[in-house]
Structure formats: structure tokens, C-alpha cells
# Entry
Amino acid sequence: MNGTYSPGTPCWIDLMVPDQQAAIDFYSDLFGWQGEIGPAEQGGYSVCTLKGRPVAGIMKAMNQDGTAPDPLPPTVWTTYLSTDDISATIDAVTGAHGTVMMGPMDVMDLGRMALIADPTGAVVGLWQPGTFPGAGIVNEHGALIWNELTTSDIPAASAFYSAVLPVTTARSAMPGAEGYVEFKVGERAVGGMMDMTQMPPGVPSHWQPYFHVDSVDDIQAAAVRAGGTVLAPAFDMAAGRMAVLADPQGGAFSVITATSPEQTS
# Structure
């Protein structure tokens, strides 16, 4: 991890949950993170760390006045894509038939953020770094290794992201991954995309993080013991062994023991 992220690269993830402390406890026990509820002036936002470096954020679902929203939003992990000019990216989003959900807004001196939805409905964040570039550790046990878009329309999504950020898309050349699409920044694959055919009916287009782990089976068992849910039991695939899990509040994520972990930045 070199401390910076090229524009178009996933650089950060965070989770919005009804019970922030319970989520911090779950992921800390599962992955070895450290975290605590942040100060009130930061909305209680928790920057969780691994080996002393930022790995992910966890925040409580609340309205701007601090009250609980009704109804509560779904518990989801949000992926943030790095940009060096968030205003220009937002202009491109509206021009490419995307939707601006929030922002852009300053986050102290850390950077500027926005939430957008692509034309297929998948919500993703944008991050223009200030003093905070994003995750300080990746591709190690308990840390982010991959981000994946599951979408109802691969051609439309490909056209959108290529129009708003300096990314290209290409079919994966990995044996056994026929039909899988990669997001690339230059020659580096920084994320993936697949269609909705394997999703249950009614699941919307969405981004999901993958965490690298030493043993998928052990992490799956630990998640279940802690009240989590197995959405797709551990299985072997082209890039390694993986499982899709959900935390006790419903936040879905994948874990993988990758055959050849690569830098994502």
C-alpha cells in the first residue's frame, strides 16, 4: 500500500448501521480490528484500524438532527472511488444519467465526499482526498482486497463509470472467470463487475467489499457464532476460496483467500 490511490480506484469503505457499537464489536472480533465510537463533532463516525492503520469506517444510521430515521435504511457497506476533482466528477455523473444522492461536501480537512447512484441504481461514494487518502492497509488478513459491482446492466454500468472516472472495463482473462468484467485503471484491475443472474429476485444493483482472510471456512464459522448469516457458503472459484456473509444487522460482505493477492491502488 503506497498511501495514495489513483483516480477511479476504490479507496475506502464504510458501513451504516442501527447499532454502531454492536457492528464495531462484530468486525473487531471477526477481523482483529480496533475501533470505538468517534467524537460527537464527527457524528460519532468510527475509523476502525488494523495494525494501527485505517481499514474501514462504521457509523450510526441517524438524521442530521441526531434522531433515528424512520424507517431505518438498509444496513449496507458503501464503496468509495477516489477522484482528484469531485466537482468535475459530479458534473460528469449528471451528464452520464447518474444521480447525485448527497454532496459534494467537505469532511473537515480529510477530503470531500459525495454519494451517487449509477444508471442501474447501484449507490457508490466518491472521495477526493485531503489529508486522508483512504484505507491504509489492504490485501492482508482482515483488510479490503476487492470491490465488486453486481448490476442489472453491465453495458450501461461500463459506459457510466468510464464516462465519469478514468477507468476502463474489460472481460477477465482469468481461466474459469468467463463473463466476469474488470474495472481497470491503466493496466491494473482495481474492481470487478458481474450481472444479477445469481442474485435472489428483488436484490438491487449494488457494490460489495471483499476482505482477504487466511481461512474462509474459519471466518465463516466465526461469523455464524457471532450471529451473522451465510449468504453463500465457502466455495472454490477462479480467484481463490470465498464466501458471502452478512453481519447480524444485515450488512453483506464477501471474504476470500485469494490465490494471488494484488495491490488495489
The chain has a mean pLDDT of 91. Residues 11 and 170 are 21 Å apart (CA to CA). Residues 10-129 form a domain with the 2,3-Dihydroxybiphenyl 1,2-Dioxygenase; domain 1 fold (CATH 3.10.180.10). The longest helix spans residues 20-31.
